[in-house]
């Protein structure tokens, strides 16, 4: 079962209504603001394929909402290459970005100060060579040059976009804008370290590391989580997010027992030798198939094998009402955006599986993107140690806030995460637009 982008955006709006109106009793103008997008910009890129043929691909960049004034604080969000890319999918994902930024932060007053955005081009990334992927992003820079910029809208890595594609984008954007008298590096984050605009040490692993920090933060607050000392994890997806989670598992005392990606799945209940798996991925074009340190099984079977932590870190809509009943994990740690269908949530709750929602769990990526943006705009660069230390504070702060809201309102962690996000956005919108707080509103 998979949802269309339109259904995903409808679901997102429903969630905003149910928490915003139903729980926090926010004013209609705030609900209106959050259930519409400020901008969605469509474009077409012209790609010259390796064989000389010309192809046109559709792309979009969507801005959800910005609790701050653009010009000081940009919109921020990933750029993806996937067949599912379309206006509504990006609207849903851009809203998630607004909420992530409003949740994590070390103190009540400090959050990630960006509005939410998302973009992408519709294509099957597997059909394109690395050179073609880079040329796609150069064309994207040409098309988006007037709407993006370090203080307007800053892109980041996402599905099928890594450091090299980001480099191509920044290089072309900088070439177009070099005479305008501002440094261009902060137009995107997730740049390679040696990039002229300044990449951030730690960005590559930030989302995966953030997942570990979030779970650690929650385990300390929820004594009833019931995870063993050395929990066993199954990870779906082996790209930017999944690979980083796996690579850091040992550091966080987690045994990886299963991994899957688009090429297949491997499972070893005694534990996978992560170092060997990473070498295999390196040699095998990033794909897990053919890894001989574990048994090859199907991706769907892997999801339902027994483990302590299940980490969907691949794509949306993979935990469905059909498979939720079969899951045998204690914790579902959402590395991907929107991996769980709304109809699956009550089933997971019934089974006693704790869901750590995407808008909290995977916010490490945008957090370190914020650090990279700060460094690029200030010209002052941090060490990896400092990056990781700050990331831990942001993620732990977010986890604590969400657990507190869950306790206060007696709700699950996903609802609590929306309560935290909307409680931060609502006063910011009132301040930005000069709106008065209604008497009934709780925040
Ligand atoms: P990626 O393209 O680097 O990796 C995706 C991985 O998922 C690949 O290994 C691919 O083979 C695998 N995959 C795709 N479809 C699959 C399927 N049906 N079954 C099993 N595996 C499948 O993407 P990414 O950047 O790692 O992003 C993954 C998810 O995390 C997305 O939902 C993205 O929006 C979200 N996310 C990414 C970041 C980031 O920093 N990159 C931050 C927050 C959230």
Give your account of this protein's structure.
The structure is a single chain. This protein has three domains: 1-36 and 412-443, no CATH class; 38-187, 3-Layer(aba) Sandwich (Rossmann fold), CATH 3.40.50; 206-361, 3-Layer(aba) Sandwich (Rossmann fold). With 443 residues, it is an alpha/beta fold. It is built from 15 helices and twelve strands.
Write out the distinct hetero groups bound to the structure.
nicotinamide-adenine-dinucleotide
CATH top level of the largest domain? Answer: Alpha Beta
Q: What does the main sheet amount to?
A: 7 strands, mixed
Low-confidence stretches: none
Order of helices and strands: HHEEEHEHEHHEHEEHEHEHEHEHHHH
The count of domains is: 3
The average pLDDT value, as a whole number, equals 95
**Distance N terminus to C terminus?**
37 Å
What Rg, in angstroms, do the CA atoms define?
A: 21 Å
In percent terms, what proportion of residues is strand?
Answer: 15-25%
CATH topology of the largest domain: Rossmann fold
Outline type: globular
How much helicity do the residues have? Answer: 40-55%
Structural class of the secondary structure composition? Answer: alpha/beta
CATH architecture of the largest domain: 3-Layer(aba) Sandwich
Continuous helix count: 15
